[in-house]
Design brief:
The structure is a homodimer of 450-residue chains. Chain A has two domains: 252 residues, Alpha-Beta Barrel (nicotinate phosphoribosyltransferase); 175 residues, Aldolase class I (TIM Barrel). Chain A is 41% helix and 18% strand. Chain A is built from 17 helices and 19 strands. The first copy, chain A, has a seven-stranded antiparallel sheet with strand order 13-12-1-5-3-17-18. A six-stranded parallel sheet of chain A has the order 7-6-11-10-9-8. A four-stranded mixed sheet of chain A has the order 16-14-15-19. In chain A, helix 6 packs across helix 7. At the A-B interface, helix 1, helix 2, helix 6, helix 7 and helix 8 of A face helix 1, helix 2, helix 6, helix 7 and helix 8 of B.
Chain lengths: 450, 450
């Protein structure tokens, strides 16, 4: 398990470029912009997330002495550079979309302005953090849409790509409306509601299914969700109902039953009927097992009666689109706008602002990308969050982000919300930015001809 | 960033089940088996990886006092259970496939035998760790196959699902034959070779492309790979060749050039020709940009001339198959074999051994799953690696695993090695295991009828 500094979690070239800059005494102020060139075809919108971790990272940026020693051992760096590197902290400014905002390709999620060595050194982790959280939040948001108001919880931890992805899955899914997570560490860290039922192994270890149900109910008389499919789901349901009767007799209430395999449409309907007939109208039908937004939509369309979806691996790994094509591009250096002209990967020059206009129905009419200092119609979405390497305000946290997402999702056009073949928006570009871009392109080409 | 214990990184139900077991004083010895029900359709084999981290986790398993306090604050657990939990360490036995072994669905990657509470508490992280590493190693192995002997390096860190996934991508790709990684933290932790070139931003910050190339070459006269596609790849190549001439004049040598966009087939051929004509036969053509095994195979098939592939996001997130369907199933408890009968998810009872037979060409003829104590033909693949909660031997590390994989990959039938529509093997099952399974199934069903 890694125990070094986060500064070391970087592509090696960030260090070699820093060394080359340092040797040339080149360290003027640069602005980098973080955005997606395109959305994955399966996504009609993105949810901005991860800013809290990103700002933590920037505030804590520093190499440890043994890391500088390791770099020295590579035999490629001058002592004066290593001494400089040991003292580097992040002293820059950050503008960002707030967590929970919905956004699209070409729209900056974050812009960093700092001496170029600092701004370059933080590239890898800034992309990594925002990509991880925004990828998972965008996926979880689709599960929320598919569930049409039903409760969702996160069961993904066992097959996320590492523990950090598990923490991000718990936080990001909560941010878009999930009601809880099975991830205990995330519950403690973020103050999320812990949820869980029981495993098949628990039932098997007793051998006798009803004995297992009774043992669990005895320990947690007010928090029992019984897993009924270890051997035969209908027989399991009957036993769960018997245990529910015993709980009721002692003044408690069965929370629900869980189905994890088989014909979930038929079984969920049968479970609902059996529970209702036993006077257990309040007991929830919980469904799990390879769920994602497609499967949830399909189950509901085919008439499944589900109160709570426990969503796992496919959400927690964003299985159909496991990354966003986020890039962190230099947009100005030493007061000069910069762009990359590589085929198909052009970036917009200069620090920017993003403006959103809503129509009469409070749906997004369009986003507009402008230079940061321009004044345009609509609401400006990017705001300063860090200056001189310090947060301007304490992080609002996932609860504020959750409120924001709940409001912003209502502004998305139906074409963005579709689960299949969604049509994301693209921002238009202000005339000022467009003409600056054209000037910068010509200038860049001309400069190469010298 | 999470700073608690790894014991807390668990599904909440592991704790509630432990509490229910504890309340019943049920803590006999259990064996759990970790295996994949099926491989993703895109995979013809798996590479076992992650054991080193898994054993670290087991040896270090312990809750911190503030975590026990947090659990107490939930108001669901009895003080005697919390006191017990505070003292839990992992005291069990582990049998496992060595890292770098190739394997298939239904084959145990790892089996844990311990008092059931311990064995259950470690479930979530054991699955998470082995899933992460084996998923990424299996993906990276396909890139190695596609590259047909050309050098590969890992550039994935910026878009892995978190830093831990980035560390695992670096280690797992090295394990299957990659020559280096851009991930500096992984280089320090694992002793991997750091690699890197330069970013487009570096070129843009100078404005003048050749000035950027010269500055880098001056700082790293023996380690320079020039990125040529920021503005125009062919013009960039000409400038790189000019700088290579300057390096040569001062007794140094350009390591290579990197192409990251555009028609990589045509550009790589042109680059090779231009470099050769300039007497730079030793300078490498490095290619990057949305590479994976499919793209590498396609580039080579269409005649690209590439010396080194820098593979990023799609490898580091295993984009086409971002998880393995690993399950951790109870196979015996208190001396009694156990199975789950859930539709489509049946598991094999009891602690097992896996035997491999090779044919006359040293290719796998077949794998056989038996009870652990059986003696069968072939080589036994599972070996004890931990007893009484302590490793039997120091971890052999990724270098030994790399050697193993290099040998084992040669034993895979062509049908497993195909990049598209591969046909993975399935183990056969010994008659003894098959009849035990049948008896256990009947017994489980009968027990439910009581």
């Amino acid at each position: 398990m890694y125990s070094g500094s986060l500064a070391m979690v970087t592509d090696f070239y960030e260090i070699t470029m820093a060394a080359a800059y340092h040797a040339k005494a080149m360290n003027d102020v640069a602005t980098f912009s973080l955005f997606a060139h395109d959305l994955p075809p399966e996504r009609g919108f993105m949810v901005a997330a991860g800013l809290e971790d990103a700002l933590d990272y920037l505030e804590g940026f520093a190499f440890q002495p043994r890391e500088i020693q390791y770099l020295a051992s590579l035999g490629r760096f001058r002592p004066d550079f290593l001494e400089f590197l040991a003292g580097v902290r992040f002293s820059g400014e950050v503008w960002a979309l707030p967590e929970g905002a919905v956004c699209f390709a070409e729209e900056p999620l974050l812009e960093i302005t700092a001496p170029i060595i600092e701004a370059q050194l933080v590239e890898t982790m800034i992309i990594n953090i925002i990509n991880l959280h925004s990828t998972l939040a965008s996926k979880a948001a689709r599960c929320v849409l598919a569930a049409q108001g039903r409760t969702l919880v996160d069961f993904s931890l066992r097959r996320t790509q590492g523990l950090q992805a598990g923490m991000a899955a718990a936080r990001s899914s909560t941010l878009v409306g999930f009601a809880g997570t099975s991830n205990l560490a995330a519950c403690q860290l973020y103050g999320i509601n812990p949820v869980g039922t029981m495993a098949h192994s628990f039932v098997e270890s007793f051998g006798d299914e009803i004995a297992a149900f009774r043992a669990f109910a005895k320990s947690f008389p007010d928090h029992t969700v019984i897993l009924v499919d270890t051997y035969d789901s209908v027989a399991g349901l009957e036993r769960a109902i018997a245990v529910a009767g015993e709980l009721r007799a002692s003044g408690h209430r069965l929370v629900g039953i869980r189905l994890d395999s088989g014909d979930l449409v038929g079984l969920s309907r049968q479970a609902r009927d059996m529970l209702d007939q036993a006077g257990l109208e309040q007991a929830m039908v919980v469904v799990s097992g390879s769920l994602d937004e497609y499967r949830i939509a399909d189950l509901l369309e085919r008439g499944a009666r589900v109160d709570l979806f426990a969503v796992g691996t496919r959400m927690g790994s964003s299985a159909d689109a496991p990354y966003l094509d986020l890039a962190y591009k230099l947009v100005s250096y030493a007061g000069r706008p910069t762009i990359k002209l590589s085929a198909g990967k052009e970036s917009w020059a200069e620090a920017k602002q993003l403006w959103r206009s809503l129509d009469a129905n409070q749906r997004i009419q369009g986003d507009l990308l402008s230079l940061r200092q321009e004044q345009q119609a609509g609401t400006p979405l990017l705001a300063p969050v860090m200056r001189h390497g310090r947060r301007l305000e304490p992080e609002p946290g996932w609860k504020a982000a959750r409120q924001r997402f709940a409001q912003e999702v209502l502004t998305l056009p139906a074409s963005c919300l579709r689960l299949t073949d969604p049509l994301p928006l693209r921002p238009s570009v202000s005339p000022t930015l467009a003409s600056l871009q054209e000037r910068t392109r010509l200038e860049a080409l001309n400069r190469q001809k010298i």
